[in-house]
Write a structure and sequence with these properties.
two-stranded antiparallel sheet; 94 residues
Length: 94
Amino acid sequence: MAVKSLYVGNLPYNSTEEEIRIIFEPFGPIEDIRLIHSKGFGFVDIPEENVAAAIEATNGMDVGGRTITVNEARQRTERRSQGKGGFGGRRERW
């Protein structure tokens, strides 16, 4: 069974895996849940054939007083360093 990741945004910072499991379990067995509490989002891995139905049913849902955003997770793109200033950049002394 192929699995896809859903991005779940605008979650309350105190969301638990159990709360997220209750929301997404109707769409098939959950492979994994990864919550990023400090950022208020997470990822839920569900069967690929249920992704469209899960997005349709949960996107815009109220969870803990917040309207969540649910869509198919995209691959993370690499960030290129600018090489000027900031952390890790070269700094000249005056």
